[in-house]
Structures are given as C-alpha cells and as structure tokens.
TrEMBL record:
Name this protein carries in UniProt: ATP-dependent DNA helicase
Pfam families xrefs: DEAD_2, Helicase_C_2
Assigned keywords, A-Z: 4Fe-4S, ATP-binding, DNA damage, DNA repair, DNA-binding, Helicase, Hydrolase, Iron, Iron-sulfur, Isomerase, Metal-binding, Nucleotide-binding
UniProt organism field: Methermicoccus shengliensis
Statement: the UniProt record of this protein carries the keyword Amino-acid biosynthesis: no
InterPro entries: ATP-dep_Helicase_C (IPR006555), DinG/Rad3-like (IPR045028), Helic_SF1/SF2_ATP-bd_DinG/Rad3 (IPR014013), Helicase-like_DEXD_c2 (IPR006554), Helicase_ATP-bd (IPR014001), P-loop_NTPase (IPR027417), RAD3-like_helicase_DEAD (IPR010614), XPD_DNA_FeS (IPR042493)
Domain Helicase ATP-binding: 2-318
Length: 683
C-alpha cells in the first residue's frame, strides 16, 4: 500500500502494518469516516501519520494534542520521514506559546501578557502609519517606532518588537489592517522545511515572533498541530480553522490520546463561577457605565447588574452545600430573573453576551487586556437556562464558594466534529473496551470502525498481579484484616522490586492512610519516598530526582490515580519497574455522579450505562497508571491491581485482553514472590 513509501523505519513492529493499512483505508475513504485505534505502548502509534499522509491527497491534516509535550513525538516522526524516505511533508504547530515566545520570561502570564502587547503594538503601527500618511507600513522602515519598541525592555514594554516585525499594516477601505510582513513570510517558508522544535524555532526566527511565523506556516503546511481546545471547543474551532485556511471538509483529523476527548469536551463546556468572578464582572459594568452609553446598552447594563447582585446572594447562600450537590436550575433562574419585567431567560442571556462584546471593545480601546469576566458569568447563565430543559446539562456546587454549570454527555459535540471533517483517526493506548468508548464518544454503535491491537511487548517481561481479597471499598476501609492485606501488597512491591516503584492511590486521603506504612517499607529497602505535590510547578524537579534514584537503591513514588503523575509522563528505561493501583479508582458517589449514572442507564440500559458513566473512567485511570511501567520491549516490570474488584465480573471483562490473560490472583502473603520473579527474569 502507499504508506510503505512514507514509512520511515527499517522494519515493522508486530501488527504495525495492520494499523497502517486500516488508517490508510479510512483516510482514502473520507466521507466523514472515523477509525478508533486502541494500540498499546510499543505499537508505533505515531507512525500512523505515514498512512495519513500517503492517503490524504490534497486534503490537509490537523493533529489535536492534549498536552504540548506530545508535539516532539510528531516532529521527530516527520523528521524521520523527511530523512529516510523521498517524501518531504511540511509541519507547523500552534501549541506551547510560552516555549516559543522570546520574551515569555517577562510576563507573569505569557498568554495574557502577549495578548495585551499585541493590542498595544497594533495600535502603535496604526498610529505611526497614519502619522506618516502612508497606505502601507512596516516598522523596519521607521527608525522612530523601531527605537520605541526597545523601551521598557524586560519590565514595562509598550509594544512587542517581534510582533511588530512580523506584521505590516495597510489601509483597506479606510481601515488599517495588519497582515504578515514579508520577513515573517520568509521565516515561515524556512521553518516549515526544517521541522524545528520550539527552542530551535526561537533561535531561527531571531527578529520575528516564532508563534506568528508558525501561524503563517500553518496556512500552507500539510500538517498543523493544534491543541484540544482549538479543535474541541466549537466556537474556537471555527475561528482557528478560518484563521489557518482550513476547510473542515478537506481536513483529515487525528485525535491523539483519544481516550481523553470525552472528558475534554465536558470540561470545555463547563463554566465555573464564584463570588470573586461575579464581583469582577460587576466592576466591569461600573467602568463601562462611567462612559457615554446609548439607551439600549444602558438598559442591558442595569438588567445585568441586577442579575449579578442576585447571583452574588445566591452563591453566598449556597456556600454551605456539599461539592457536587446538584442545584435546581429552575429555582436558580427564578431567583435571578424574578425582578425582570417581561421575563425571557434566553433573551436576557443573549443581551448579556452582547454586553460582553461591548466591554471587550471598550477594553481594547483603553488598551487593556480584553479578557471579559462577564463572559464567564454569561456562559454559566446560558448553561443554567439550558439545564432547565436538557438533562445532559447540570448545575452544581463546586469547591468553596464555586458553582458550575456544564454538559455531562460529550457525544453530540463529538458527532458534530467528526461529521464536519473529511475523516477522523482516534489514537490511544487505552481505549478498552473499544465498543464502550464508541458509545461514550458518539452515543451510538457503528459510527466508527474500530481496531484493537494486542500488546506487542513480550509477556515474559511483565508480572501482572491482581488481589484476591484486598479492597478499598468504603465499607472495608477500616477493616483490620483488609488493611493488613493491602499493606502486604504494598510491602511486596516496595521490597520486592530492586528499583523505582510507584503506588497510585484512589485519593489523597487514602495516600495519607498508607503513607507511614510505605515510608517504613521504603526505609527498610533504603529507598527514598516521593509524594505527588499539589502544585504543577514542583513536578519536573520531583521527577528528575525520582529518575536519578533508579541508578541507586530506588525510589517510591506515592501518587493518586488520575493525577499529574499517572498519565502523560514517560518513565523511560529503568525509571519505573513496578506500579500498583491501590483500589478501584471510581469517582466519589456524589449527587452529580448519581445524575450522570441515571442519565447513561436510561440511554443505554443498566449494564452498559453504569459502565460508561462510572466504571470506564476508573478503568482508564488504572490502565494509564500501570501503563507507565513498560515503555519498550526490553523493559521489565510488575503491574499490580490491588483491589479484588478488578478480578470480578462487571470489571474484569472490560480490562484489556492481555491483562485478563496474564493476571495472577494473589493474596498479600503471596506478593513476596515478586522478588523471586524479578531475580528469575533478570537472570
Ligand atoms: S507576539 Fe510573539 S514575541 Fe510578542 S509576546 Fe506574543 S508570543 Fe511573544
């Protein structure tokens, strides 16, 4: 098949051809086809891009990533194709702006800082162009602005010199518009042929803004790498696709780490508010009403101010409710809109959204960062109004004084997405059971073709254990025998594996319950203990120290399932040789969870409904955590499922087949066999 001419490796991994053929067929077909690929680590998933490129024809490719760290994998795949085949695909990426921006270190928030500087720079370009009476203007022909651009360097810049040099201004129908400068276009043509990492890009661009240069390159490159938000947020997708000359009908979409897309859609379509957010929106109204406003806008300001004051009261009133208590959207809307004459809730939200635009324009004219706090409140209220007649939308209490409103079923959004593009390839290492994921993503069976690849790493390199009787079921949490069973599993892993191990608990509370025991076992084995920090910025240092321990006596990482250290981190080589999931990581059984369960049970029946709503996310968290251990065919490791529910009906049948086949049931005492197994395999 055609992918062979694009394949950049000397040989194929087991089952890799099967995947590439399926991808090529799907892309060739187009017609809004969807292919879901469940390919465990080691299947060479990223090489699917060869088959996409081979079959795409004149269409363009969009790769949507969950995290910016994944961009390097695709860049190196394209580099390989360019080096080892006769093909020369071009790739551009619009992810990781802080890594690309040469002055990112000057901002507290690089996104907000950049947006503000761009507005100031555009205004400066326009002002100079008008002052010079020109119809076309570039900063490099103007020593006055060039000098001004260097002012405030490092602290209080009044414009961004890189952005200014990336743009030229011209007069069109009496209005000044900015477009890419010739220098930016030259740089774009260069970078698209070189496949540069963000730091190399920064060096190559030198005088232009690397992000703007990439945006120019993205308008003509074969492949554009975007983040989930760009693609899964419907409003943003329209804007980004138009900006990058992408026509949905002529776009092949690749969704990377696709098991996440459902949750990403839910989170994108959720609005969270609290007293502070409402207060900020009220301040925006105060500022706006100090200026001259026409009568209709003044009416909207007065109406919105009244609603926001009542919303503040409501939020305060709900402060004592438990997180994830479901709130009645009818009662909420009645309370908020009660005083409005000729009440029409939807129309009032539309008026607020109009007001958001007025505030945005006002902020721009005042050269302020155009983030509008009222936008979040209006979105929250839009979802509250929707929740009155739509069971897929909930309003609930969050943490502290927070309230949230959001959708619980991502399938209508994902269907609209895949129905709009030419075809979609969904890649993941944990889409098991794939039929259930199809139902969760699209709300129906048969919308996608599905491909499940077996685990291609040697089974002899891994020991898969599941507990016979230990459990974290809440009724057994304080049972002394159960606690000692769990402890024996923990001891077996920490003392039996002569390297780094990780224990993933179902919550921070449970981690604390077993922390002292873990520390005692670690101390006996001369291992250092690491605890997952709550702040993201502490993670890189913790990981680098944990990895260093692999060459000494080893480390013990205590983390939570579904947390920052259980997914997306590459524990390569011997940096992790054993992992245990302590407990079935089900979500807390809150009112929100009960509503989600009820909704899915009504739609898909009891068994499938509970699987989609409740069990599937837990299994995914567990599989992602265990998936950190074996990253290449020579890795050796122990994978432990420390909860007897993993081996019982209702769960076991949904585990990946290789886990089911290899799983050995053990009790706490039998975990002492781990040391012997490691010794044998190493010998
Ligand atoms: S326009 Fe470019 S260089 Fe300037 S602040 Fe933004 S990202 Fe940085």
């Amino acid at each position: 098949m055609a992918y062979e001419q694009w394949f950049a490796y000397p040989s194929y991994r087991p089952n890799q051809r099967v995947m590439l053929e399926a991808v090529e067929r799907c892309v060739r077909k187009g017609e809004h086809a969807v292919l879901m690929v469940d390919a465990p680590t080691g299947s060479g998933k990223t090489s699917a891009i060869s088959a996409v490129l081979a079959a795409k024809g004149a269409r363009r490719v969009v790769i949507a990533l969950r995290t910016t760290s994944q961009v390097e994998g695709y860049l190196s795949e394209i580099r390989r194709i360019r080096e080892h085949t006769k093909k020369r695909p071009e790739i551009a990426y619009l992810v990781g702006k802080p890594k690309m921006c040469p002055i990112a270190g000057e901002f507290e928030n690089p996104y907000a800082g950049c947006e503000l500087l761009k507005i100031l720079t555009k205004n400066a370009l326009e002002a100079r162009m008008r002052a010079l009476g020109r119809e076309r203007y570039t900063v490099e022909e103007d020593p006055v602005l060039t000098a001004l651009l260097e002012e405030g360097r490092g602290t209080h810049r009044r414009a961004c010199p890189y952005y200014a040099r990336s743009k030229s201004a011209l007069l069109r129908d009496g209005k000044v518009v900015v477009q890419p400068s010739e220098r930016a276009m030259r740089d774009a043509a260069r970078v698209v042929h070189s496949v540069l990492s963000p730091s190399e890009l920064k060096k190559t661009c030198e005088r232009t803004c690397p992000y703007e240069v990439m945006a120019v390159a993205a308008r003509f490159s074969d492949i554009v790498v975007l983040n989930y938000h760009h693609v899964l947020d419907e409003r943003m997708r329209d804007v980004v696709f138009r900006w990058l000359n992408l026509e949905p009908e002529n776009t092949v979409l690749v969704l990377d780490e696709a098991h996440n897309v459902g949750d990403a859609v839910r989170s994108i379509n959720t609005a969270r508010i609290g007293v502070r957010a409402v207060g900020r929106a009220l301040s925006e109204l105060d500022v706006l009403s100090k200026g001259e406003l026409d009568a209709a806008i003044m009416d909207d300001v007065l109406m919105t101010r009244g609603v926001l004051k009542r919303l503040t009261e409501y939020v305060e009133h709900m402060r004592e409710r438990k997180p994830d208590d479901v709130l009645d959207p009818h009662a909420l809307c009645d309370f908020l809109f009660a005083e409005v004459l000729e009440r029409d809730d939807e129309h009032m939200v539309v008026r607020m959204l109009d007001l958001v635009e007025v505030i945005r324009q006002h902020k721009r004219s005042m050269m302020e960062f155009p983030e509008v706090h009222l936008a979040r409140i209006a979105e929250f209220l839009r979802l509250c109004v929707r929740a009155k007649g739509d069971e897929t939308c909930l309003v609930a209490k969050g943490e502290g004084d927070e309230l949230w409103a959001g959708v619980i079923d991502p399938s209508p959004y994902l269907r609209r997405l895949v129905d709009s593009v030419s075809c979609t390839i969904m890649l993941s290492g944990t889409l098991s059971p794939i039929d259930a994921y199809e139902l969760y993503f699209f709300g129906e069976s048969g919308r996608a073709q599905k491909l499940v690849l077996p685990n291609s790493f040697p089974a002899s390199n891994r020991l898969v254990l599941a507990s016979k009787s230990a459990t974290t079921l809440s009724s057994m949490r304080n049972d002394p025998h159960n606690i000692s069973e769990i402890e024996e599993h923990i001891r077996g892993l920490i003392e039996g594996v002569d390297g780094n191990v990780a224990l993933y608990f179902t919550s921070y509370g449970m981690l604390e319950q077993y922390r002292a025991f873990c520390e005692r076992c670690a101390s006996k084995s001369h291992k250092r203990v690491f605890i997952e920090p709550k702040e993201t910025k502490a993670i890189p240092r913790l990981l680098s120290e944990f990895f260093e321990c692999a060459s000494g006596r080893g480390g013990v990482l205590l983390a939570v399932c579904g947390g920052k250290l259980s997914e997306g981190v590459d524990y390569a080589g011997r940096s992790l040789e054993g992992a245990a999931v302590i407990g079935l990581p089900l979500s807390a059984y809150t009112e929100v969870q009960r509503r989600i369960n009820r909704y899915y049970v009504r739609r898909h029946g009891r068994q499938m409904g509970m699987l989609l709503a409740y069990t599937l996310p837990a299994l995914n968290r567990a599989m992602q955590a265990l998936g950190r251990v074996i990253r290449s065919e020579n890795d050796i490791g122990v994978l432990m499922l420390c909860d007897s529910r993993f081996a019982k009906s209702g769960v076991v049948e949904y585990l990946p087949s290789w886990i089911r086949d290899e799983m050995r049931l053990v009790d706490g005492a039998e975990c002492s066999m781990i040391a012997g197994w490691i010794g044998e395999v190493r010998a």
